[in-house]
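sorry for the late reply, my laptop died twice this morning and i had to redo everyting from scratch. anyway the thing you sent over, i finally got around to it. pasting the sequence first so we're on the same page, its 129 residues, then the predicted structure underneath. double check i copied it right bc i was rushing
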Amino acid sequence: MKKIRPYFKKADIFVILLVILVSATGFFALFSGFTKATPTVAEIRVNTVLVKTIDLKKADTPYTLTVEGNFPVELEISKEGVRFINSECPDKLCIHSGLITSNRTCACLPAGVSVEVKSEDSSVDAVAG
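ok and here's the structure:
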C-alpha cells in the first residue's frame, strides 16, 4: 500500500501563517490611526507664490475661502483640513480629491492654486537614498 504524503509539511504551514500575520499587522498599522497627525497650518499658493497661511487650530467652525487664481476657486477650511468645494476647471479633479489632511498637498492646476496642509508632527514618511 502506498503511503500518502501530506501536501504541506508542518514547517510550510508555520511559514505561511507567519507571512499572513506579518502582512496583516503591517496593513493595520499603515491604515490605522498610528500615523495620523493633527493638521495645524495650511499654505495656499497661486502660481507657486504663497498668498495665505491659515492656522487650522483656530478654525472652530468650517468656513469658505475664495482664492483668486487663473479663475476663482472656493476652499472649505476646517480643523480637520482643507477641501476644494468649487472650481471652474473642466475636470474637477481638485474637488474629487476630498479632504486634504496632514502633510498632504492638492492642486487645481488650471486655476494655478495649490494647498499644502502641514502638521507639527515631524516624523519622516520615507527616506530615499
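DSSP finds two helices and seven strands in the chain.
thats about all i looked at so far, will dig more tmrw
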